[in-house]
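A note from the maintainers: we've had questions about how concatenated examples are separated. There is no special marker in the raw files; a new sequence line simply starts the next protein. For clarity in this README we add a label.
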Amino acid sequence: MHEELIEIMGKHVQGEIVNQINNLDTKYYSIIVDSTPDLTHVDQLVIVVRYCYNGKPCERFLTFLPIENHSSTTLFNKIQQVLGEQKLSLESIRGQSYDNAPNMKRSEKGLQALLKNINRYADYVPCAAHSLNLVGEKAVSTLPEVVDYFGILQELYVFFSGSPRRWGILNTQGNLHFSLKSLSVTRWPAHYEAVRAIKNGYLGILQTLKHIFEDSEEKPECKRDAKNLYHKLVKLEYAIFTFVWEEVLDISTKQVRNAKPLVLMYLKVIFCYHLCFHLLKSSEKIQPIGLHTESDAKGLCDDITSSYSDASKLIVTRTFSDGTSGIISLRGADKFRIEVLYQLYEC
């Protein structure tokens, strides 16, 4: 009975959306298409329509349906079938937006090309949020220190979430304001949520790890893992990374959430320009923060080490204004700032 009622309501909503699009004052619309597996591992294709109604832009979920594969032909046939069933004309499409996957964006055999063959006015606009997501992923994978940092965040989540007992200890004794989050391969904002949870619960997490590896009743392998995570998190570099990455991810995540696919090509160019301009301006504000976050990082917890763990030298050759050159030896804060933080900002 409940499923019947939901189906009736769904068809009524779909009908209202179609009526709004087919209104004489509307007529034209754009589509947004993506797919993802659900909890039962069935790949679901999602179709969203964007149109203008009563002078205001509307974005409406139209339907989702299972797909067998991700070939451009399969996706095109599914879209054509759904739009035909809903009596929406392919010729009225004025924009199409997908992610940057080759099967979607290729100019010859991609999904956008197949639709363009039928309707030359259906301009393709790659998803701005997905493009920015790829930039973020590239920045994370550039430096080994950054890869290591996010690897530890994921290890921390796996360690606590793998045991209801450890998760309970963390939430009762750690007094966390935000629950630990897992990283995501496809959702860049998940990195921000994970870092924010660590920063706001740094002291509680360290205290919980210490409690676990000092508990005589804990299993040896559990005590070992807790101790290894504890000794990694008390390093000054990781505490600094937590401050720096929260600031960087806060800015980029807001841009991802605010990014909207646009149907007109010139608007897309303007939008991307302003997006990049805003990020560059924001990064200029972040760079000075990286120079004094050491004191903030040490303030997270008394257990944070007061010095940098890497005592090796960084040898830098410099050419001075008078034409002479010299070798500068850097350690500690200077080495970490030049070798890691400055490289991160350039990403």
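[label: protein 2]
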Amino acid sequence: MEFMEKGFARFIAKPVWSGRGHLRFREKEELQDRPWEVLKELLPPRAYKTYTSIQAVAHALHAAYSSRSQRMMRAGGDRLEHERIQPWQLHHFLRHHQFPNTSVHGMHLGENEHLEANLDIVNTIIFPNFSILSMKVGSIERQASEEPRLTMDQDAIVWPPWYKQPLPASRCTKSCLPGYVKVVLEGKPICCYDCSPCGEGTISTQEDAELCTNCPEDQYPSLDHTRCIPKEITFLSYEETLGIVLVVLVLFFSMATLLILGIFIKYTDTPIVRANNRDLTYILLTSVLLSFLSSILFIGQPRRVTCLLQQTTFSIIFSVAVSTLLAKTITVVVAFMATQPGNRMRKWVGKSLAKSIVLSCSTVQIGFCALWLGISPPFPEFDMHSQHGQIILQCNEGSVAMFYGALGYMGFLAAISFTVAFRARKLPGGFNEAKLITFSMLVFCSVWVSFVPTYLSTKGKYMVAVQVFSILASSAGLLGCIFLPKCYIIVVRPDLNIKDHLMMRC
């Protein structure tokens, strides 16, 4: 009764008792004029919402039947009935009904049956004694010709205790860390996947990456494959330990060669120096000295000029040295054969034969190197992929066939020289160099035969170091096997450096 008196006192007409015993209200009273704020205060929240919903449906039914008052159907006999309303037919009338709301302008259904109003977002709190408190924590405000604006005070929201518990995982595995990539498992849900580390040269910078990305050519991935690191440019430099050791060896052997050359020049008129063609001895010592110095071209930062000179200079100098040894060996053989009575080889004895051998053999190598420089010359290049985390600055041979062709010709001369010297090693004579040349060529061939597989199995500055070491080792073999025994006789045993010893037959 308190609700009826406060909420509907001024709307009740004179009581008119119908035949059914129900109290009737004025039918034409505007429903939207009733004091909704008063009703909201009197009714509990749930009852107020239920009442609002029933009132909206009643309003829609009233409007629907009123619109059909002119259209009556005869069901049978003298009885008239209203046309039956279908539920979906109420949508049109609900559009024109204004719902009670705390919004200033209320709310109603729009053209597409969507709610159009300023709405309050209420946080309902239920206390342990089952009392209920509703508190406004936000709102949705409609803007003219714009999307609604949502405002929310998240700090004002009171969450129930169970809501703060961690949510169950919605996937079968943990997130893939950076450096890994997701791998979908066949026959499993999309949320189930494996984490596979990124491959060589690739990285991933975010969790659950779909794929790994490649690093630029001048960079390489970190150990955890999460970032790219710039590569270090490397070459056989003078500052590093390996370069310093090689330079020291070059200087040592060069000084030793100069010392031996000085000894031979000082004792140039002694029998041991004059034997076996003194001019060839000087050519050989000069070639060995230049071969030691040519190693310097391989050390330091490769440039265009040094790349052009490295292989060609080395090939020509060694060809001159080996052809000189060949000429020395042939000179010994021809000289021995010329001493036999009636032998026609006497006309070949002399300096002209030796010089022609050296010149002809060296000219072939010079022509080959000139062709190499004309067709495909060496050039400096950056090798990005041979060494991990490094950019190798090196000399490209230009033509691999030309490089091994020059090396092969040098080996061909060494093989002929070794064969001739080996066959002449037992010829009589106190200063017969055939034995010394045999040992020197054995060392020379051993070094360069082992050079090829070692050179092919190394990369970068170590490949250059292998070639420098081979040049030094083979040149030192020539110097030691041929000239150290002679220096020993000249300096330590001058009593053997006489003509009688030279003419002695073994």
